[in-house]
């Protein structure tokens, strides 16, 4: 199901995006990887090519619609095909709302929500014309459960989950476009490093000490949804570490 498919992965320079791009390549997909950190993308490219895989990398800032459009155009020009979009780019600078970290709120909304909308908008015309495709949005357990210091982050992830369901209702039956929302619990990635609120230092420490999910675990969940039979639309996958209560 995955072999020879063209898969676009955003936020591919580390964590879930990096692990997913590698696994997709090993499964025989052609991978288009975008992220802001070009040097990390080059490392991914080298690793994929050493394994005999096909990969295209490009600097991508998902908060800029023109970046998203040009990235998708490059993919179609290179391979004349788009089968799967994985909206993975995301940030998590948690903070207590009373601390008024407005610029961080804006960043989360721009990356986690608007970036997903821009990339989806760029691929939808192609998928509708082809009447085929699969969109995977990376949400979070925070898209279901709200917690202190996570009000804005949770709001963005609730939006990702809601958007995924709305997209499914609009596109799946009419255009044969599958939609999957992946909702991880705590994953061992760089996300906690973006937290600047000093009052959350103990929280960050506890998260880093937890036996968390690995990025590869989320990549496996993504591939499970992609590799399901064509008549199955796996809409949601929620996975947590065994040690995570909420």
Q: Could you explain the architecture of this structure?
A:
- Helix 1 runs parallel beside helix 2 and helix 1 (15-26) packs across helix 7 (215-226).
- The longest helix has 29 residues, at 102-130.
- This protein has a single domain (6-239), classed as Rossmann fold (3-Layer(aba) Sandwich).
- The chain has 7 helices and 7 strands, in the order βαβαβαβαβαβααβ.
- 47% of the residues lie in helices and 16% in strands.
- The radius of gyration is 17 Å and the shape is globular.
- The chain has helices at residues 15-26, 38-50, 65-79, 102-130, 151-175, 201-209, 215-226; strands at residues 6-10, 30-35, 54-59, 84-87, 133-138, 177-184, 236-239.
Helix-strand layout with pairing:
Blueprint: E1 6-10, H1 15-26, E2 30-35, H2 38-50, E3 54-59, H3 65-79, E4 84-87, H4 102-130, E5 133-138, H5 151-175, E6 177-184, H6 201-209, H7 215-226, E7 236-239
Parallel strand pairs: 1-2, 1-4, 2-3, 4-5, 5-6, 6-7
Helix pairs in contact: 1-2, 1-7, 3-4, 4-5
